[in-house]
Write a structure and sequence with these properties.
Length: about 325
């Protein structure tokens, strides 16, 4: 038995209760010796993150104590540490970024399953869901971008996990965020119709909003018009910003819009990424949101679901 196996089988000390409020406490990141200080505090909450997986139980995140990860066997699994902020009590919240092959940490009554954030997010308290998104995004960057993109030297982690300093060329690097637009298209004459598309990689009858990354030198509005023209064949007129969502697949900031088509009859798929586009009636959308019928819509963790459900609710009696 390896020390890592032994660490998984020991009882897992847990911090009771869920995080209901979360402050990034960004100023604290500049405090000298912050991580050693909070890792010596028994009140500190620890969230283990492995890729896009987070430990969950009964609809909440599983929080470890510092003592759990102070054990030699468990400590071997940690690639990096990072400070995430403070909870509603002012206790520090830190992340143990696990190696990709670390698996699920053990629990008191058998393994604690680590779930993809895509699956776990809808069941989490909003504060924990937001915190988990930040943890997955930051954790992936810490593991996947250890070298300076300018000179290739290995960088040093600074600011409690939120930046990297190159000892060779002196450049400072920060976690990357890529802006992307996501758009639900309304009909120019019929307020009870919504245009959605089906991606070539999806199963039959799954439809969603249209989305794409913002190109270099492009505004959000320009990206909306270009993406809709490319994927759905229509020009759009009025745009309405609705909401944004951090989405760590891989490191996106999704910026959501409603856009009105100029000519509904021009809608057609590009035939490559989008294989089908359809104008759906409001009752069809309502049935799909309620789990009825054949139409499959995006899951509730996504901003696409919010755009569609908000449009449906706005026109329902």
């Amino acid at each position: 038995m390896t020390s890592s196996d032994s660490a998984r089988e020991r009882p897992r000390p847990r911090v009771p209760g869920r995080v209901t409020r979360w402050d990034r406490a960004a100023d604290d990141r500049f405090t000298a010796g912050l991580l050693p200080t909070v890792l010596a505090d028994p009140a500190t909450r620890v969230l283990a993150v492995c890729g896009d997986r987070v430990p969950t139980s009964e609809g909440g995140l599983v929080w470890d104590t510092v003592s759990r990860w102070a054990e030699p066997g468990a400590a071997e699994l940690v690639e990096e540490w990072a400070f995430l902020g403070r909870d509603e009590r002012g206790a520090a919240v830190v992340m143990a970024v696990l190696a990709a092959d670390a698996g699920a940490p053990g629990g008191e009554a058998g393994p604690v399953m680590t779930e993809s954030l895509r699956i776990a997010a809808p069941q989490l308290h909003p504060a924990e869901a937001s915190l988990a998104v930040a943890a997955v995004s930051l954790g992936r960057w810490l593991v996947e971008a250890p070298f300076c993109p300018a000179c290739g030297a290995r960088t040093e982690v600074r600011h409690a996990g939120w930046s990297r300093q190159c000892p060779s060329c002196g450049r400072e690097h920060f976690p990357r965020t890529d802006p992307a637009v996501i758009v639900a298209i309304t009909h120019p004459h019929d307020p009870d119709r919504l245009l959605l598309g089906s991606n070539a990689a999806w199963t039959d009858q799954r439809y969603s909003c249209f989305a794409g990354f913002v190109e270099a030198g492009e505004s959000l509005e320009g990206a909306v018009r270009r993406e809709i023209r490319e994927e759905a064949g229509v020009e759009v007129g009025d745009l309405q910003y609705r909401a944004s969502q951090a989405w760590p697949y891989p490191r996106s900031l999704m910026v959501g819009f409603l856009a009105e088509a100029v000519d509904a009859g021009m809608a057609r798929p590009d035939g490559e990424e989008i294989v089908s586009v359809r104008w759906f009636l409001r009752p069809e959308i309502g049935d799909a949101l309620a789990g009825r019928g054949d139409l499959l819509l995006p899951g509730p963790a996504s901003i696409a679901h919010r755009l569609i459900s908000d449009w449906y609710a706005a026109g329902s009696p």
